[in-house]
Design brief:
Blueprint (H helix, E strand, L loop, with lengths): L1 H16 L4 E5 L13 H10 L1 H14 L3 E5 L16 E4 L2 E3 L6 E3 H17 L20
Parallel strand pairs: 1-2
Antiparallel strand pairs: 3-4, 4-5
């Protein structure tokens, strides 16, 4: 619990240092339902890290300092190309490359770009152009 509190405060401190007013997090609902599909050592790490507890403390600290927290759909966030939306192929250790546009980067960076983009889409009024639907909830990326 103490670790989760410290991480929550640390994230909010960084957001404030960067003069951000929004923190974008992955929506973790249904994550636990697919945990049985993971290898045993990953399941153990998942339970030990307690992502949702950390998110709750991030939200708590953000609320105290007037920051908005947005939770976006994490589906395909680490494999969809942030430039064109095509599923990327592995090109090296934890590195992905888009065969359509040539974008190549570490999968964690790809995920951050995609989550950031979904957060912007959520905040913008542009998503209202297509019937007001939040397109970050779609199951499959464009191909």
């Amino acid at each position: 619990m103490d670790f989760a509190k410290k991480v929550g405060r640390w994230i909010v401190d960084i957001a404030m240092l960067l003069k951000a007013n929004v923190i974008v997090l992955e929506r973790l609902t249904k994550m636990i339902y697919h945990v049985g599909d993971l290898r045993k050592n990953y399941r153990l790490k998942l339970y030990l890290m307690q992502y949702s507890r950390i998110q709750k403390w991030i939200e708590w600290e953000a609320k105290k300092y007037g920051l908005k927290v947005i939770k976006v759909n994490p589906s395909y966030s680490s494999t969809a190309c942030p430039k064109c939306g095509t599923l990327m192929k592995e090109s090296g250790y934890r590195t992905l490359k888009c065969e359509r546009c040539g974008f190549e980067e570490h999968r964690d960076y790809v995920s951050v770009l995609n989550l950031y983009g979904r957060g912007l889409l959520h905040l913008s009024t542009a998503h209202g152009v297509k019937g007001g639907k939040d397109h970050s909830d779609r199951e499959n990326p464009r191909s």
